[in-house]
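Annex B, item 7. Sequence and structure tokens for protein A, then protein B.
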Amino acid sequence: MVKFMHESEQTALLVRWLERGRAWLDELQTPTGLHASSAADHYHALFGRDTLWSVLLVLEAARLRPTDRALASWVGEFAARGLRALAATQGTSERDENEEQPGKIIHEYWPEPRRWPEGEWPLWEGRYYGSVDATYLFLIAAATVWQQVEGGRQLVEQLWPHVLAALDWALKYGDVDDDGLIEVMPRQPRGLGLRNQVWKDSNDALLLEDGAPPKPPVAWIELQGYALAAFREMRPLLQAAGAEATLLRELEERVERLRKGLPRFWLPTEHCPAMALSPEKQAIPLVASNMGHLLWCAALEEPYASQTAERLLQPDLLTPWGIRTLSRTSYAFDPYSYHRGTVWPFDNAIIASALWRMGRHSQALIISRRLLEALALFDSPVELYCVLPPEWILTPTTGGAEVLAVYTRACKVQAWTAAALMLAAAQLLAEAG
């Protein structure tokens, strides 16, 4: 692990991480937007969710460094390019074949047909809209830019028709069964595309105790937070734009319904929310990193927020190199799987950001240090990596220590990991003063 001997050396190294993160993100910029990974990797295309989390994480990094004018300027332009790219690819019509809907933010756009995914993938002119979360994140990002970035209000005014279209989608399509919660309900008529239309989008990311995936609709815990935050953060923008009182009241009502629905997720014996609800609105008892996104959205009241924060830092989730996607005591745990036990740097950065916002700086720094130590060993903003528990290793014995390992199909240069390391470095620099 990286050890810093002198404060000046530590500061210089952290500043270097910030610079490297910017350089990696600049390399991923294209005329059609920020690509999720490098040309040598799997996802060299515009992905809505990846762009938005990259924007949100670098915005947070800039907020932690208020005197760094160069960083603020770069972040403002980076955010503007990201939002404009997603506005340009926003859904405009109803098309079940690629799950497009008016106002919906794209899941992925492959501008070059030669790079389209192999096999039958539900693209229409290179576009697929199979994500529920991206539209809410677009609204949060627009509101954050409006509040934080110099010139952000003018940018949001330019994009205002797209913001309103996204809000209309969020109000119209997110709650598929009118119970106040946001659900995933794929619409592709041939069953192509993604079953899990959230960031943990592999088909086996969410499993029942019998090993089968739940049937839709599924209410993922983080979706409730994203929607709640989007509706809450949009109110000042709408008020400034002179929106009708009926729309403002509807947003208040949606926030209240979401808050009232959150107790359905609570696992009393685990002192944290479950990963998701089944179609019958029963908690699927998996302890996962998703709850950290709910904290980031400031969606939980006390004492539930504090209990959730403490749960994330227990040893079944927290490793020497960051927080796992799934508890090692969960029935579905597999440290080699894509989303059921690996460690994702961007996921950890969101949790570290949430803890910092809660005033839990020392806990946030635990995650940020471990994240940077892992990425220093890879010397690259890798998509994800494995941390193997000692009981998964036969020889050589590790003395009870967990082992950092490569996830062989991980992208080597991933945009939101570059943004994550910038956030981690900014936290450590802020703490150092």
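Protein B:
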Amino acid sequence: MKPTILIIDDESLVRENLKTVFVMEGYEVVLAENGEKGISRFSDSEPDVVLLDVRLPDIDGKEVLEKIRKIDNNAVVLIITGAPGFEDTVEFIKSGAYDYLPKPFDVGELKFHVEKALESARLRKRVEDIERQEIEKYGFDKIIGQSKAIKEVCSLASKVAVSSTTPVLLTGESGTGKELLARAIHLSSPRRDKPFVIVNCTTLSENLLESDLFGHEKGAFTGAIRKKIGKFEIAQTGTIFLDEIGDLYPKLQMKLLRVLQEHEIERVGGTFPIKVDARVISATNKDLTAMTKNNEFREDLYYRLNVVNIKLPSLKERGDDILLLSRRFVAEFSTEFKKEVKLSNEAEKVLMIYQWKGNIRELRNVIERTVLLSNKDTIMPEDFPEDIIYADSKSAAEQSDKKKPLIDIRDILPLNNLEEMYIAAVLDKVGGNKSEAARILGITRQRLARKTTKKSL
């Protein structure tokens, strides 16, 4: 597809000469002899680059530039003008012009400037495409769920996203989707086109984490052979996500407090402060209130981080969201593994009964494993790992027992007997094929052999 260039100039000879030059270069050329027509043709043709003369018969070039920028704030406009004063040039650049070129100009130089402007437009489009893909993948509408609990979380998070500076603390059990929510907040904020930097506060030693967060100067310590830029500097004008903040070392808690208070850092081995502008979103599965009372976490830092607290619900608190997530994961992994698999009604009942202590992360892992190992088009309960199958049996037994008044504890089968009966039933179903039985039970053949030997099956 040919790039389009719009030429707005009141001199017909200039317009026609430029048209000839750029048609020969492979451009689609649109012409306008005054400001009003230039604005109209910009709106109609959506050009990649605009050449704008500042002296037009009807509207001042600066006003044309401003109106074009209102139509498309990312428009790439190259000013062509007679010798402008320095102040005029500065004003045009401030108003959003990409560059300027004084008349009379060399054709080769003009082509170079236009190609440079076009490359800028292409780069901007690539950035916009990446940003759109990120939003499509990680935006609030990609947080799956219809439960009241998750809707309240998304509602609060979307309100918080409007601010570009307010610190946010995400709390909740492990595996509830805190990183996904942090990314959604970032992508819905004014900082969406800036970096989103993730730091896990548990993975590094104190010294390495300090260097990772704040950077270090060359020679700051043994092995510091060159200067390193820290994550706060990398996240400049964007968002930094501090995961597992409850595990942050005391020394680094103090340095983080300085960032939140003074908006500056100092590299390890550095001698001067560096201003930083990054929104801080932190997350933890720990009780920071209790930790502050036990002097395990700085109280002043806690209040700085906890300007807005968003508590993510556990999966068991989200009701039918379990099924929505399960179906979504089945579809995702069916595509990845090139299979056509769906959940049976019985399998969905098992998923609803299980407690999911690992929350969404555990559910996703179970579905991935099950789809990968399945050789059928419908997932049945026996295709799940044994702990999930037993949870189904145990829960069903518990529900049945609740309906029986005054039951005698002696009537309940020991777990070993229940396991023995279940293994025997599976072996019977597969005609004694231990490899197939082990696959259904979600255990190794060797483990099954030990169990059958022990139970004399």
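Comment on protein B: The first strand starts at residue 4 and ends at 8.
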